Amino acid sequence: MAPDLWSLYALMLKARLFEEAATKLWYEGLISGEMHLGTGEEGIIAGVVSQLRDGDAMALDHRGTAALLMRGVDSVSLLHEFLGHPQGLCGGMGGHMHLFSKEHLAASSGIVGSAGPAAAGFALAAQYLHPQSIAVAFFGDGAMNQGMLMESMNLAAVWKLPVLFVCKDDGWGITTQSDVSTAGNLDDRARGLGLLAFSVDGVDAARVWEIAHSAIERIRSGEGPVFLHARCVHLEGHFLGLQTIRILRDPLKEMPKVAVGLTKSILKLHGAAVSERITGLKSIMSSVIAALRDPRRDHAHDPILHTRAALQSDETRLKAMEDRMEEDIHNILITVLGEVPS
Amino acid sequence: MAPDLWSLYALMLKARLFEEAATKLWYEGLISGEMHLGTGEEGIIAGVVSQLRDGDAMALDHRGTAALLMRGVDSVSLLHEFLGHPQGLCGGMGGHMHLFSKEHLAASSGIVGSAGPAAAGFALAAQYLHPQSIAVAFFGDGAMNQGMLMESMNLAAVWKLPVLFVCKDDGWGITTQSDVSTAGNLDDRARGLGLLAFSVDGVDAARVWEIAHSAIERIRSGEGPVFLHARCVHLEGHFLGLQTIRILRDPLKEMPKVAVGLTKSILKLHGAAVSERITGLKSIMSSVIAALRDPRRDHAHDPILHTRAALQSDETRLKAMEDRMEEDIHNILITVLGEVPS
Amino acid sequence: MKTMSFIQAVDDALAQAMAEDPHIIVFGEDIPLLRRDLLVRFGPRRVRGTPISESAFLGAGVAAAMAGLRPVVEMYMVDFLGVCMDALLNHAAKVEAFSGGKWTAPLVVRAPCGGGYGDGGQHEQSLWGMLAHIPGLTVIVPSTPADAGGLMLAALKQDGPVIILEHKLLSEMWLEFLGSGARKTVSFDIPAGGTKGSVPQKWEPLPLGEATLRRDGHDLTIISLGVSVHRALEAATLLEAEGISAGVLDLRTVSPLDKKTVCQEVIKTGRLLVVDEDYETFGLSGELAAVILEAGIAFKYARVCTQMTIPYSRHLEDEVLPNVKRICTAAQQLMK
Amino acid sequence: MKTMSFIQAVDDALAQAMAEDPHIIVFGEDIPLLRRDLLVRFGPRRVRGTPISESAFLGAGVAAAMAGLRPVVEMYMVDFLGVCMDALLNHAAKVEAFSGGKWTAPLVVRAPCGGGYGDGGQHEQSLWGMLAHIPGLTVIVPSTPADAGGLMLAALKQDGPVIILEHKLLSEMWLEFLGSGARKTVSFDIPAGGTKGSVPQKWEPLPLGEATLRRDGHDLTIISLGVSVHRALEAATLLEAEGISAGVLDLRTVSPLDKKTVCQEVIKTGRLLVVDEDYETFGLSGELAAVILEAGIAFKYARVCTQMTIPYSRHLEDEVLPNVKRICTAAQQLMK
Ligand SMILES: Cc1ncc(C[n+]2csc(CCOP(=O)(O)OP(=O)(O)O)c2C)c(N)n1
Ligand SMILES: Cc1ncc(C[n+]2csc(CCOP(=O)(O)OP(=O)(O)O)c2C)c(N)n1
Ligand SMILES: [Mg+2]
Ligand SMILES: [Mg+2]
């Protein structure tokens, strides 16, 4: 089966516009705490979430916004929640890392790896209450090193639970690159835990859709859990205002803050040999440089642009859709901010 | 290189005689709490521990007795500990599940899976303090599903820690068979976590020695952790007095205790359909029957008999050794029990 | 009135609830053998064994509860919650708050607890003080068969997460399984009143958060729970011979705490002796002091608790766990 | 006298110790970036990043400490101890007891804690009450740069496991890292006295288990720790204007608890108000009540703590965490 590109595009765009709006509000200080965006992983989310039905469940990580929007959670109530408003999805109690919608059987958590056990539990309930329903776990590559996630893959496999484990692999956990924190190979690891494993480039929502489609069919028919390993690039880095990204974007302003301490440390009496200190300095620099070389700076990794390119032939329809969605988000902002006392 | 069969046999026999003595004391009520023996896994322990040197460390599970004895912990102080005596290895504070010998860098724990992180930590210290020293983790197949153990394999791999992870696979976790609790394949799983993996039948101490030997050489030279998957049979089942084993050994006495409840449950109003109840009954019966068919009843799985067979040609030496060791354990018992007020 | 053992009572109440509510399922390590009677009656679909991976299956229990099941998740021992505390601390206990009150996780966690049979410090803890510290959890520690059954039923009707801690000394099943079944050579200080007792013909849920007065007294009030209630009762009998009249209040639930009855009893006697098998500091014994002070009541106070890691040696263990002698001495002190 | 920020002070004391003792190593998630100054000075061998697997690396820290290193293990936030509590509860805290006093695990766990900046209930907890419940752990909660450095040094000389909880509101580094660095549009109620302060020329270890009187008073004693100390001091100033003289005692270490000073101060005023950002029940506030009652002291008591899961909304959050207004109201009540 083939996906409907237009609806995938619509889903992604909706999430992107929402998160861009949230970004502005965050910079304006109207949203508190950390803010992890899903910009860049929309291809994965859209490819999977577009296939969910009533009774299916989602266990989300710290980037749950896009999945909830695509699943049909009301944008206004979500934005209200981000603003800590009593009318928010969770009455202002959860915030963007702890979003819960009972109606959609969707729960987020800021504890890395906990989407695994949660999806297993949702799937267990599905086995009893809604046969043929499934649960999806969304998590990052860093989470693959968290014991409870690996445990839950094994549990899902021995119980043949209907779970799709989706690893959104951006190659990073905050400021740590996965190649220094993850040994072996994630697909092998999942297979060693009894799962079927598929790999895909998440920039291509249509391809994700296709692979997820056959995986989900398999899962619905009771054949047990599947691991979907999808690469992606987080366009804003780990969270808004990530230090390494700030340094890249505004080195003149941000570098001195960092450099003073480093220089002092190079010169301090007592400590490692100079050669080792230089190695240390290099390793820090290389993490900044890695961020520089980070594919996130390359537009080719934006799933929205990728799908848009395939739709460009019908410019009129595209423009109409984009205009409508921009208007939507505009209206949402007006609705929500209209009430916020300035 | 080839192992010295005589010394492997001596190590194994020493542990076996000690644990058999402990068994008697346990049945006599002189040892309290649960009692997990290592009888049946001595081939694995001897094959590995005989290669350890000063500075090497061991992280042990709930069956640590044999490893400690083979590593050189004093039998008297160990037996004292089992008896809760102030002169015991741990002053009577630890007991058989929590044995600690700082001198031998050996620590046990009753928390399934915790030998993984512990060995990683010992190995980390070795990297700094005793290069070329290694740490060994001993754990069961059930522990392979515990998140912290899998996490620690990954950690050891990315940090290239000198750890030998030894899985003593008896196919059981207490009364649960591994094929219903463990998905995938343990060797693949370890490889997916970045480890080299080797398999061996633990009944053959010499073969274990050989494989462990090359693994340990590799580890000492800084090439990172190795997974050693060794099969074994626990001759006494999970712990002394395990219910399923009791039923097998004395069905006339033990079966009625179990059967009354089961029969009532079959007949009670409200509950599953009769067919499902029968399925349930069958599954319980099959776990007893599995214990019946359990290879532990087959002497071919005893590592001590296995190695003994290879030494039988020199009957005089064998007899001398066995007599001496029996006398040793006899003396130890006299020493220790002599002091215990009856 | 029927008579049942402690563990029979819990399982019987659970079975009654399972017969009525098909959403109740039971899982944990070795459960097919340990709950074989439930397995045979309700089938292997509803009574399941798990891999040794507490974080996965306890976490799964939380989500399954959110999605409409009512899982009873069994831990081998409460001590092992250390490997999966996150599921309770950051998930089960917080779903209701995080969702703005719109969603809850009605799961029941069952865990054997407590010492007195020589298993050592990693296997004999109580830890209810630690658990009750977390807002959003209900923590139950029954001391008799009748309470154990009635509180299990109440737990199964509760709208959020509940933990029931079952003391191993009260449970012939656990002691038999952990080794006593194979030898007649060991005996433990097992309180008769806790291990067997009369139970109702049909189980009714007991109210959560209601303490019960096991013995009236006018000189001092002993507040306790679990096995220690029986130690306290024994001590009270001895104290009576010395002319000290000690009341014994059994909390039954740690959280919510029955502040009203607690205060009422302490007002009556003006003296509180807490007997708590859990660790002494930063737990239940302190909370009781605070609650009564907050009510503006003046009283004398002492406690007999576990002050350190529980030793393996049976002899040392008996000294470290609250025992009758320590209780009597503390009570005498308090009367001075 | 030099001046330093809170986090500078901790890192500076740590650096001083690392320069003296080559056995000290530091590891945790993202540590190469977060402790980049230490990395550059002491090299990548001694300052390491870890995979996201707290159970593995905290557990490894315990064993590495037993084997002769002195690891400083960093948790991203204290809340995440939920996934690896076992390493503290059943290992670090018990090695000494289990080994009959022959072996210890001298590791230092460093964890940011506390709320007031809108991260929500899974990321703003305090949990020292839960940790201090475990016999065998030392728990430190500093409130000023000078204490933070001196206590870090003391922790590094301690013979068993120590946890230092550093409040994020006191740490410009954490707030900057968690997002404030990128925007000038947010401001939090940051206590000036806690974030910057004078520190000694060379660090000396402070004694563990010694509280310090931040302000003398004769009507009531406020006992507190961490950020709440500063809230209490602010409240005390306001109360003074109303004619209420409130002393403020800063505990600095939760366990061991400075019972002597605690009792001394409460004897002086006869009134105790505990201000504790950790959860109210079954924790520090109760333990203080118990300790003073055990000493036979009669006093009035109240507490201002966190009673529920911390809300995300900044507005609700400020009400749930102990604030100056709640402290003043409680103090006034206590004076009635
Ligand atoms: C148990 C736990 N440990 C650490 C953290 C801090 N933390 C939050 S997000 C994150 C990185 C997660 O990386 P990954 O799973 O790859 O997801 P990504 O952010 O890259 O999408 C970390 C370490 C946490 N929230 N929970
Ligand atoms: C974290 C934890 N969960 C459960 C237990 C209870 N338990 C003790 S031994 C054991 C089985 C272990 O199986 P395995 O690792 O295969 O070792 P074996 O006993 O077969 O040698 C279990 C479940 C425990 N001690 N710790
Ligand atoms: Mg990532
Ligand atoms: Mg096994």
By DSSP (H or I, 4+ residues per run), the number of helices of chain A equals: 13
CATH top level assignment of the largest domain in chain A: Alpha Beta
What is the oligomer described by this structure? Answer: heterotetramer
Order of adjacent strands in the largest pleated sheet of chain A: 2-3-1-4-5-9-8
* Name given to the CATH homologous superfamily of the largest domain in chain A: Thiamin diphosphate (ThDP)-binding fold, Pyr/PP domains
Distance between the termini of chain C: 43 Å
Please identify the structural class of chain C as seen in this structure.
alpha/beta
Radius of gyration of chain A: 21 Å
What is the β-strand count of chain A? 9
List the helices and strands and how they pair.
The complex is a heterotetramer, with 2 copies of chain A (342 residues) and 2 copies of chain C (336 residues).
Chain A (H helix, E strand, L loop, with lengths): L4 H23 L14 H8 L7 E4 L4 H7 L3 H8 L17 E2 L4 E3 L6 H15 L5 E6 L6 H12 L4 E7 L2 E2 L2 E2 L8 H7 L3 E6 L3 H16 L5 E6 L11 H7 L1 H17 L6 H19 L10 H9 L3 H25 L3
Parallel strand pairs in A: 1-3, 1-4, 4-5, 5-9, 8-9
Antiparallel strand pairs in A: 2-3, 6-7
Helix pairs in contact in A: 1-2, 1-3, 1-12, 1-13, 2-3, 2-8, 4-13, 5-6, 9-10, 9-11
Chain C lengths: L1 E4 H15 L3 E5 L2 H4 L1 H7 L4 E3 L4 H13 L3 E5 L10 H8 L2 H4 L9 E6 L14 H5 L5 E3 L4 H11 L6 E6 L4 H6 L14 H4 E4 L12 E4 L4 E5 L2 H15 L4 E5 L2 E3 L3 H11 L1 E9 L4 H11 L5 E7 L7 H7 L3 H12 L1
Parallel strand pairs in C: 2-3, 2-4, 4-5, 5-7, 6-7, 10-11, 10-13, 13-14
Antiparallel strand pairs in C: 1-8, 6-12, 9-11
Helix pairs in contact in C: 1-8, 4-5, 11-15
The complex binds thiamine diphosphate (2 copies) and magnesium ion (2 copies).
Top keywords for this entry?
A: Rossmann fold; seven-stranded mixed sheet; two-stranded antiparallel ribbon; C: 336 residues; alpha/beta; Rossmann fold; 2 domains; five-stranded mixed sheet; 15 helices; globular; binds thiamine diphosphate; binds magnesium ion
